[in-house]
Specification:
22% strand; alpha/beta; 6-stranded parallel β-sheet; pyruvate-formate lyase- activating enzyme; OB fold (Dihydrolipoamide Acetyltransferase, E2P); globular
């Protein structure tokens, strides 16, 4: 088998693709980088946004016409749009995200297979360590019921990888040379809710039982679940082996819109939550998400969102225009017009860029430790600070996986540039 895997969406989806590759390599498959060279093409999809869906469907239509390879559509869109995918590519097998560990059943069958139903993630297979960066899926599902989000339908409720398996897998990865370890999840703060366990407890065990030179990154966390563990979490995050990085989506700066979204917090509670991280950690990168043009968002609500960003000054904000998703309640609410969404998105991005630039200015002229993770363009190297800031390193004579001291001499809204000290 020569297999090409194409991935869309979040870090969890990327980790799922690594699970798929691990299963196939164990069966003797070769992973290729071009679909032209493959006799099996696997598209691991995302269903969070309409524009991503359209992009995936265009790609699938092209592949189905131009190749005779066997096609497997995995991930969230396979569960959300099985009829649409079948109409575009009738020969494509479908595998929902919680059934990816059964990918062998699809390949062993001589006919088209559809693995869509009430599957539960088993975590029997985790990615094989390769390179410096390791993506480890520790949790899927969520406890929320947001009116705009399709994920409760496609991913289901919280299912966690057993802590013993997480720890043993990280031990193996560190021994194999992995130094940049991402604990991926749909909501990392919900880890262990199904096991009578918790994320802080897991982190403490990892740091205690896994020896070696590595940095841990915690995946996105929902505000309402994070608030329940925040005191324990900030304590364990002081450890020098954990990235000082939090990704906690607020989605709107207006309490009325948050109620329409069915988010389980208000702005006062969100501010208090973020302040606990900022005050407890010496330096922390704060990333968040905003949906503009959500049904019911008026000018006042949008203004409140802009004011919140200016006040909290996140390092990074993913701004997305609201799009209708199937199996959600928000399409039944009064919609905001597309021109207004576009205008608000442009306005907020301009604010975000200014705030991000202001945040990055604190690094200018400073010396920071950087973990080299990749090669860049024109002989540069790419790396991350302990606050997970991306750094472009010029004139560096170092290897991927090394930690070096870098002096930052240039910044923009998105990354830092420096030279080895």
């Amino acid at each position: 088998m020569k297999v090409y895997v194409e991935t869309y969406g979040c870090w969890l989806n990327k980790a799922d693709s690594e699970v798929i590759k691990t299963i196939l390599v164990e069966r003797g498959a070769t992973i290729v980088s071009n679909p032209v060279d493959a006799n099996i093409i696997i598209i691991n999809t995302c269903a969070v946004r309409e524009d991503t869906e359209r992009k995936i469907l265009r790609r699938l239509r092209m592949l189905c016409k131009k190749t005779t390879a066997r096609i497997v559509v995995a991930g969230c869109l396979a569960k959300a749009r099985p009829a649409t995918i079948t109409d575009i590519c009738p020969r494509a097998s479908l595998v929902e995200p919680n059934a990816i560990e059964k990918i062998s059943e699809v390949l062993d069958s001589a006919s088209r297979e559809i693995l869509i139903g009430s599957y539960r993630r088993e975590f029997n297979v985790l990615p094989e360590p390769r390179g410096i960066t390791y993506l480890l899926p520790i949790e899927v599902g969520c406890v929320g019921a947001c009116t705009y989000c399709i994920m409760p339908y496609t991913r289901g409720r919280v299912t966690s990888c057993p802590p013993e398996k997480v720890i043993s897998t990280i031990k193996t990865a560190v021994k194999a040379g992995c130094k940049n370890i991402h604990l991926t999840a749909q909501d990392a703060a919900a880890y262990g809710l199904d096991l009578n366990y918790s994320l802080p407890k897991l982190l403490k065990r990892i740091l205690s039982e896994v020896q070696g030179d590595y940095w841990l990154k915690i995946s996105m966390m929902e505000p309402s679940t994070t608030a329940k563990i925040v005191n324990e979490l900030v304590e364990v995050m002081r450890d020098s082996r954990i990235y000082k990085y939090i990704h906690i989506p607020v989605q709107s700066g207006d309490d009325r819109v948050l109620k329409l979204m069915n988010r389980r917090y208000n702005i006062r509670e969100f501010k208090l939550l973020i302040s606990k991280f900022v005050k407890s950690l010496e330096d922390v990168t704060f990333a968040t998400d905003i949906i503009v043009g959500f049904p019911g968002e008026d000018d006042t609500a949008f203004k409140n969102t802009c004011l919140l960003i200016k006040e909290l000054k996140p390092d990074k904000v993913h701004v997305a225009r609201y799009t209708i998703r199937p199996f959600t309640l928000a399409p039944g609410l009064p919609q905001v017009s597309e021109p207004i969404k576009k205008h608000r998105s442009k306005t907020l991005v301009e604010i975000v860029d200014k705030v991000s630039l202001e945040r990055n200015l604190r690094y200018l002229g400073k010396e920071v430790q950087v973990l080299i993770t990749d090669k860049g363009k024109e002989g540069t190297l790419l790396g991350r600070t302990l606050t997970f800031k991306p750094v472009v390193i010029k004139n560096a004579k170092a290897n991927i996986g090394e930690k070096i001291l870098v002096k930052i001499h240039y910044i923009n809204s998105y990354y830092l540039i420096g030279k080895p000290v």
